[in-house]
Amino acid sequence: MIVKPTLLDHPKFLRLARKLGPDALHVLVRMWAHCETDQKGERWRGADPEYLEAVCRWSGDQGKAYNSLLDCEFIGTFEGGLVIRNWRKYNQTLVNSWDNGRSGGRPRKTHGKPTGNPRVSPSRGSGNPRVSGNGTSQNPPVTHGEPVAPPRREEKSREEGSREEYPQTPTSDAPKSSPRSDPIEGEVGWPTRDQWRAACEMLGMPEHVAQEEWLRQESKPAHERWARVSLDRLPMHAERVLGWWRQKGCPGPGGPGASDVKATPYNLRMQIDALAAEIPNHKGNPEGTWPPDVREMHYEDFVGKTRRLRELREQLASLGQ
Predict the structure, then answer these.
(1) Every domain range in the chain assigned CATH 1.10.10
(2) CATH: 1.10.3210, 3.30.310, 1.10.10, 3.30.530. Which one for 5-92?
(3) 118-147 as b/e, with b when 16 or more CB fall inside 10 Å?
(4) pLDDT, mean of each 10-residue run, the chain (321 residues)
């Protein structure tokens, strides 16, 4: 990413600074840096104002950063997304390197192969001796001091040699691999928004909690986004997000925000399994006893989790499960 020193005195930046204050430079740099994430480029497909402000880490009024960037002509819109104006113009070298990578790298240098046999001049003392009139033989006159060696062909580089020795011929079943500008929706480990909403609705997660987690994941770099979360483990990730939200002040039934959480059988089973895994040797131990394999777990914490486990099982039994 190239940022010229004259940016701070540019009229467009001065207009943006009057609108956003000291955070104007941070907003611009984070927006431009996101263009290099996963070779996204200047066109962000499917981006909206909330996505842009999440990428820029904007913590002010909602929509203020987006409208300011749009008024100062730093961004534009097209059908289905946003475009970062003039980014490609100042980063053309980076874009060219991406294009070379998609086409298989830089074109190889080719050297002309020698054609025909090289001419060899006679060397000293070579050829048949010439006979003079008195019967003595003489060597022919010297035309060149040393024999002229044929031009030696330059050795191939390791890269050329490996390519010619092991040619890569793509088959019809295996498409050519090339870096893409943005992720393909529906891949394993990269859920779509509808798939994420379905997993959250199954647990009864409030809509604002699901939206906050979606924006947090989408604002991460490409190699960290939805890391280690495949589609079959998406409900488990949603359960962890729901647990984090409860720990921040919404701990479930009876606590703040308890009316927003649905007590579904699937939700109760997930809570029971997660809580049982945190209690060492919880089976067969009456309440108030100390399991032999507990070393670091606090006694009151053990008793509280055991009671909570019993309450969840009774609540599940009341639903006929």
Answers:
(1) 5-92
(2) 1.10.10
(3) eeeeeeeeeeeeeeeeeeeeeeeeeeeeee
(4) 78 88 88 77 84 88 89 86 83 78 67 60 55 56 57 54 46 44 45 80 78 74 65 76 70 40 68 72 51 54 75 83 63
